[in-house]
Amino acid sequence: MRWKTFPSMDDKALTTEDACHFLSISRQTLYKLVKSRKIPGKKVGDNYRFLKSDLIRYFKNGS
Fold first, then answer.
1. How many CB atoms sit inside 10 A of residue 54's CB?
2. What is the pLDDT of residues 9-52, one digit of tens each?
């Protein structure tokens, strides 16, 4: 998956662990959200990275 926009310098790329902590959800739930395309994630090697702005947008839109 490609980022839809180029991330700004202020936008942090979070690890899976950080994204789970930020949203207060489990790793399994986060992966389900990625699979259902509710949260965009970028696969880097064997791991995912998530833009903090995307997580905030998901949270603001009522999950």
1. 20
2. 568 999 999 999 999 999 999 999 999 999 999 999 999 999 99
> What is the domain class of 13-60 according to CATH?
mainly alpha
Closest to 58 measured CA to CA, from 26, 29, 21, 33? 33
Residue that the structure tokens 């990625």 belong to? 34
What is the spatial distance between Cα 48 and Cα 14, in angstroms, rounded to a whole number?
8
Point out which residues pair with 14 in neighbouring strands.
50
Encoding tokens for residue 47?
């791991």
Domain ranges of the chain: 13-60
The residue to which tokens 């926009």 are assigned: 5
